[in-house]
Write a structure and sequence with these properties.
Strand order of the largest sheet: 1-2-3-6
Number of helices: 2
CATH class of the domain at 2-100: Alpha Beta
Distance between the termini: 26 Å
CATH topology of the domain at 2-100: Deoxyribonuclease I, Chain A
Radius of gyration: 15 Å
Number of strands: 8
Length: 142
């Protein structure tokens, strides 16, 4: 799902994803490629967030590598637990930024209303000369 919002006079594209977890990594790559093709049709800052269902270390590493190869970044370290089930913890949920900077971010734990813990980020837009402010370097609790 995608939307364009205006923030401080700039248009920002937002995408919320829910990647199918049942297929192999190649299938998740195909889903992300389709989303990235849509994201690349617009100019300006972009934010892709949601449940990427990267329910293995390999999927987390590979999906991050794919997004970073397209100019996206994330403030979350690979392996940050955002999903739990049957005693396992995985990094299933992400926020990826392109043309935006994350000042603060985190995972809301414990919040026991879902098998996912909510993630969040405060983002800043580029200044008038297109430069991004320095991102924070440590996650911050809400």
């Amino acid at each position: 799902m995608g939307a364009t919002v205006e923030m401080a006079g700039q248009r920002v594209r937002l995408f919320n994803v829910h990647v199918d977890p049942h297929g192999p990594l190649d299938n998740q790559h195909q889903q992300m490629e389709a989303l990235l093709a849509q994201a690349e049709t617009g100019d300006g800052p972009k934010l892709i967030m949601g449940d990427f269902n990267t329910l293995s270390k390999q999927k987390a590493v590979e999906i991050r590598r794919l997004l970073e190869s397209r100019g996206y970044s994330t403030p979350f370290a690979t392996g940050t637990p955002t999903w739990r089930g049957a005693g396992l913890r995985f990094h299933a949920d992400w926020i990826f930024l392109n043309g935006l900077s994350a000042k603060r971010w985190g995972v809301v734990r414990p919040l026991n209303v879902s098998d996912h813990w909510p993630i969040w980020a405060e983002v800043t837009l580029p200044n008038s000369d297109g430069q991004l402010p320095d991102a924070g370097d440590e996650p911050t609790k809400p």
